[in-house]
Design brief:
single chain, 10 helices, 23% strand, globular, alpha/beta, 6-stranded mixed β-sheet, binds adenosine-5'-diphosphate, 250 residues, 4-stranded antiparallel β-sheet, ATP-binding
Length: 250
């Protein structure tokens, strides 16, 4: 589904990613791990269109997407979430989801000059989808709460919900477990698993929570110093002496 080929990213002379290559198969949940400074976030930024690689190529579903901006990737079904959820604080949880839908009424009105009646119909569809999404995530009780008032874990669930409002195929999750309490973490894991197994989402996640990785991810790709150190099952990667050494040197 996704293929990274010899990706390099230089920041004014400093090589943050140094020839990174790996493939992601459709239907998998891949973990990207590695010590701080390994280049994981930079790699994510290149895949998601926030950074143009210095060299190398990225292929998504057979097409070259190297250097494409994030909005074009979004319309192809490649969506990224952030370590710190980017919700609109003053909008409610429901409104936050409605904002993300690719066929929001405002957009449709501008591009197609639809009748007001049609706009209202689209809005109703989007609202129904947002309500369904909140229900799936167990957030119905906070639908009309301002997103800024939600807990860290609820914000992460809402962020996942925002990807569900699009026709996402490949979702990049940036430290989904960070700052989430244990109870909500189990729920987040369960939802990621359902989206993967039942709704066909492929995921790549940057994560430090080994419990979550062990439960959800296969394969695990470990990066160090801008390169892929090893790739394999959780057990293989965890027991590799190079991985231990990379973390010790952090
Ligand atoms: P990780 O996510 O694995 O912790 P990063 O991708 O954030 O690693 O960073 C890899 C390296 O690149 C680090 O040494 C970091 O300081 C450096 N780096 C990241 N972004 C920039 C930037 N915009 N300018 C200069 N150096 C950067």
């Amino acid at each position: 589904m996704l293929e990274l080929n010899q990706l390099v990213m230089d920041f004014s002379g400093f090589r943050a990613v140094n020839g990174c290559s790996f493939k992601v198969d459709e239907g998998t949940i891949t973990a990207l791990i590695g010590p701080n400074g390994a280049g994981k976030t930079t790699l994510f930024n290149m895949i998601a269109g926030a950074l143009k690689p210095t060299s190398g190529t990225i292929t998504f579903q057979g097409g070259d997407i190297t250097g494409l901006p994030s909005n074009e990737l979004f319309s192809k079904g490649l969506v990224r979430t952030f370590q710190i959820p980017h919700e609109f604080h003053r909008l409610t949880a429901l409104e936050n989801l409605m904002m993300v839908a690719p066929n929001q009424p405002g957009e449709a009105l501008l591009s197609n000059w639809l009748s007001w009646g049609r706009v209202k119909a689209v809005e109703k569809d989007v609202e129904a989808k947002a309500e369904e999404t909140l229900e799936f995530l167990g957030l119905t009780q906070v639908a009309h709460e301002r997103a800024g008032n939600l807990s860290g874990g609820q914000k992460k669930l809402l962020e996942l919900g925002r990807t569900m409002m699009t026709d996402a195929k490949l979702v990049l999750l940036d430290e989904p477990a960070a700052g989430v309490n244990r109870t909500l973490l189990r729920k987040l894991e369960e939802k990621i698993e359902i989206l993967n197994k039942e709704r066909g989402y492929t995921f790549i996640l940057i994560e430090h929570d080994m419990e979550m990785i062990e439960k959800l991810c296969d394969p695990v790709v470990c990066m160090a110093e801008g390169r892929v150190l090893i790739e394999g099952s959780f057990q293989t990667v965890r027991s590799d002496p190079q991985v231990l050494e990379a973390y010790l040197g952090e």
